[in-house]
Amino acid sequence: MPAESQAPAATALSTVAPEPGAAKPDPILVADGVTRSFGGLHAVAVDHLELQRGAITALIGPNGAGKTTLFNLLTGFDRAGSGTWTFDGAKVSQLPAYRLARRGMVRTFQLTKALARLTVLENLQLGATEQRGERMYAALMRPLWRGQEADNRVRAEELLERFKLDHLRDAHAGTLSGGQRKLLELARALMVRPSMLMLDEPMAGVNPALAQSLLEHIVELRDEGMTVCFVEHDMDMVMGTSDWVVCLAEGQVIAEGTPRAISTNSQVVDAYLGKQHGTPPAEESS
Ligand SMILES: Nc1ncnc2c1ncn2[C@@H]1O[C@H](COP(=O)(O)OP(=O)(O)OP(=O)(O)O)[C@@H](O)[C@H]1O
After folding, report:
1. Name one GO cellular component term (predicted).
2. What's the pTM value of the predicted model, to 2 decimals?
């Protein structure tokens, strides 16, 4: 049975009815009528969804449930067919990712081949400019305003230390282990001091030792006041870390609740948990 979190967000959520579309005491994100179709396939059709400020919310569901599609819509990486959503009280539907980042919502990015050739420190410095929507070429070629560059350097050093990547600051990102890459992806997103962090499968390809450290970092960020939302198949992480769980199936929210309520929800068990046969094996060795 999952342990219930004692964080303030968990306490606030303990009075919320465990039902799809439930209103939250202090929602940071509110979505209404969000749809996305591919041809005749309704990948996402979410009537109403609220995410509680300062809480860790997990999006779960079977393969093809629409989790990644919804995540991409909310983070400005795809365009919804219809629907509106607000972030921190302001309408942000269809805003591109860099404009969302300016408002405080950022998502992690997988390291591309180009980024793998840069050092860890360069990745962090570039993370700050990317999230603001500056072009990579311009960011590298044009001398940045000195004050801003110095701020970015200070922030980067803070994050290197926090994530214990300082000894790797001059290593090429491509040489990092799977878990270290995930830490770097998280650190890159934090360069712009967001209020909400969106994570797509943070545990994928991470070995158990680093998974634990990654998990602790995420809980620590929540304890500092950050709102976190992640898509994840690893049910240990979902049950052990999240304050609230939203289960999607066939594009719709079929259940919401605390990890404890969700683990015994018959619809979730039928659609997802009953079909889970453990989590995929870790892919890295360090
Ligand atoms: N670009 C696309 N073109 C066509 N169909 C798509 C596209 N992206 C997603 N889909 C379809 O939309 C549905 C939802 O996919 P999505 O990737 O959002 O599910 P998911 O819940 O994230 O699944 P998984 O857990 O396997 O990652 C699936 O049927 C998928 O095949």
Report:
1. plasma membrane
2. 0.88
